[in-house]
Every structure is written in C-alpha cells, then in structure tokens.
Amino acid sequence: MALFLWLGSQLSSCWSSFSILGVFLTVFTLLFDFMKRRRKWSRYPPGPVSLPFIGTMLCIDFHNPHHSFKQLRKTFGNIFSLQNCWTNVVVLNGYKTVKEALVHRSEDFADRPYLPMYEHVGYGDKSEGIIAAKYGHVWKELRRFALSTLRNFGMGKRSLEERVTEEARFLCAAVNAEEGHPFDLRFLVNNAVCNVIYTTIYGERFDYGDETFKKLLHLFENSLREETGFLPQLLNVVPILLRIPGVPQNVFRKQKAFMDFIDVLIDKHMKTWNPDDIRDFTDAFLKEMEKGEEAEKSGFNYNNLRLVTADLFSAGSDTTAITLRWALLYMILHPEIQSKVQAEIDKVIGKEQSPTMKDQVNMHYTNAVIHETQRMGDIAPVGLPHMTYRDTELQGFFIPKVTVWVTPHNSAAVHLQTQVESLVSTEVGHFEMLNPGRRACLGEQLARMELFIFFTTLLQKFTFVLPKDQPRPREDGRFALTSSPHPFLVQAIPR
C-alpha cells in the first residue's frame, strides 16, 4: 500500500512539473511569436487579424490565391497587408497602384525575397538565376549578359522572326496531320513555342513526336504544380522544416527531376564545347565562366548556368503557349470573332503568304483579339513576389524594407465581343507590358512576335471548331503559378 502511495505522489509531482514546463513553453513560444511579428508601423496597410504563428495564412486559398485577394480587396482596398507566419506581405491591386510601384518607384520595389524551397536544386547565395535573384550587382550583370546574348542570337532581329515563321509552318503541318479528327492541341502548341526558345538556349529543336521532348514538357508542367498550395508557402516562410530529412526530396520531386534533365543538356554541351564556335546561349555562358575570378564574382558559375537557362526556358515558353491555348479556346467559343479575324487575315495578308510582323500594324481587329485574350485569360493572376529594397511609401501607406509584396491581376468579366470592338475603335496595335520596371520580362519582344505569328498563321490555314460530341469547354483557369485552360478537344478544318 505504501508503494502505491509513493508512486502516486511521484506521478503527481511529475505531472505538476510537466504542467509547469508546459506553461513555461507556451509562454515562451507566445513571446517568441510576438517578438517575431511586425511592429505596428504608423500608416502600415490594413489587413485581416493575424493569428499566433500562422499569421493570416488561413485567409488565403493557396491553390487559388487570386480569388482570396479579390475578396480581401473588397474589405481592405487596393493595398492591404498579410502575414505568412513571420513574413510581412503587402498585396497591391489595380493598374495605377502597380504602375506607381513598378515604374515610378521601380528601385524601391525591385528586390526579391529569398526562396528556400529552391535550395535543393542549387539556389543559394552565389546562385539565384535571374527571375528569383535578389536585386544587386550579380542580378544586373546576369540580366545584362542575358539581354546582349539573346540579341546576338536573333532577339529583335529578322533572323528570329524567320525562325518563328518556320516553326509556325511545322505547327500547321502537325495540325494538318490530325486530318480533321478531334485532338488536344495543348502538346502541339507547347512544342512549337518551346522549340523557339529551346533552339536559342540549347541549340536544338525537337520533332513533335519526340518522346524526350514530351518528357521535358511533362516534367516542367509538374514542377510548376509542386510550387502551388499551402505547403510550399509554409516551407518558404519556415525554412527550418526543409532541414527535416526527405522533406524537399519528396515535396519537390518533379522540380528536382526537371533540373536533372537540364543537367543532362548542359553536360552534353560541356563535352562538345568549343570556345571558337559559340552555338547558343549555353555556349556563351560557358565561355563567360572561363574568364576566371571576376566572372565568378558576377555570378557566372555552374549552378547559375543551370538556373538561368531554366529561367529562360520557363519564361520563354509557358506563358506564351498558355496564351495561345486561351486564344484558340475563345475562337471555338466565339466563331463570329474567329470569322472576323480570318477575314482581316485574308484582306491584309492573303491565304498563301506567311504572316510577318510588318503586317501587324494593319491588323487592328486581330491585335484587339490577342490583347483581349491576354486580359481575359489572365495567365499570371498573381505576379511573382517582389520585396522592397528600402523603406518606401505608396499611396499614403508606409511599406518598410524587406516587405514581400505581390500583385494580383484582377480582370473584370466583360464580354469578349464587346471588349474587342471597343479596342478596335481605339486601334490598339500593341500590348501593355505585363511587368514593367526593372524586372521587365526579358522575352517580351519574342512573346509578342510568337503570339501574333502563331495565331495568325493557324487561323490563316484552319478554322477551329468544337467537336459535335464534346461538352462546352470550361472558361475558368487551372492555377499552377500560371492560369491555363482546362483540357479541351478541337477540330481543325483546313480553309
């Protein structure tokens, strides 16, 4: 009996100790959380109530963040704040707000937050690529090199336009091979657009049935999907979780596989590299790496070669291919608009001559359709995250240094026909820059060229219709960093 009493007293004592320890740890963690949180700056943008540890993350659907931002905008206005765990986030809405930040205060908003989830593929202090790189000397040098090298390989020149025109002919031949049967044009369009930038970066193009290229595109699409959702965001703001063995390898498996594929391409280049015969962007980067310590200080190292070429490949292929798929989707849903585009093509270009960029200035209706496709498709509903380079102000709000901010591109639901006619009346002949300022897209000129030439060439040769036994395709997007159409089938009828 005495033994039981003794055990009881010991358990009671232990329980009391555990209780005290539990209270202490709770108080300590709450104090730690409080100290990690932002100060209450005066004139800081308003936002929803922030909970301990997780901040406002429960307010956001990370699979469709733009929908969440749209709802929060109704409550808090064009500029509001969030908190991802202990990371301060400001969301900017509206054309005037974003233009003021990106153009009028471009350097203040030019930085990028560090993204730990990319560390397992070589991202780090000395290798950040271009898209996700912090604002500074290395980013400026790599961007300068990329722009000049892309120009050397045809960017903005007639030679690149001829390459796009040739690829458009290959695309039409592949569409024609479907012989009027229903097919999913996703892969053909992706293949065509990717071939243009792929040739510039890696010096090759792939046939439309090439299994290696199909694997590359599949890996790339899946790697983008891995970056959406709650978990990747949590890993970025609480990077210690990435130190748990197996976490990055399992969460970002496809991303790693995509970069492994890039390694194979670069390894192939290194085995055949000749400094006297620079075949493509990769060769030019390898030559820059040979310049020694100064080149190393400017970011010319192997890991950056991998990341920069992957950046150029993704930026030069994904958004343009998705925009073309949206354009063709809208054409089958609005055959009356497709007919007007074809009538303008027949009048300005004819049915046999290949479209060129010189034709664009005389094709106001076609330009308006492409412009409206970009707006309605809204392919980048949430811009890449920026970070303030220094303390700044925006529309009366104070935004401190190293605050992360994003820009959802909210599109109003306006009927395509009405909006196109409105644009034609103002003779819209070019596109708004999607990301002006210091972080302007390197491949914007190429994207404009590809959209116009691929779109007009396809509608010159084919009329696209919805197969009779198919349901009406969905018009909402599928979000995975970019917003793409849900799969749909078309029939291409030769004209």
UniProtKB/TrEMBL annotation:
Name recorded for this polypeptide: Uncharacterized protein
Localization per record: Membrane
Gene Ontology terms for molecular function: heme binding; iron ion binding; oxidoreductase activity, acting on paired donors, with incorporation or reduction of molecular oxygen, reduced flavin or flavoprotein as one donor, and incorporation of one atom of oxygen
Signal peptide start-end: none
Binding site for heme: 441
Keywords, sorted A to Z: Heme, Iron, Membrane, Metal-binding, Monooxygenase, Oxidoreductase
A Pfam entry, by short name: p450
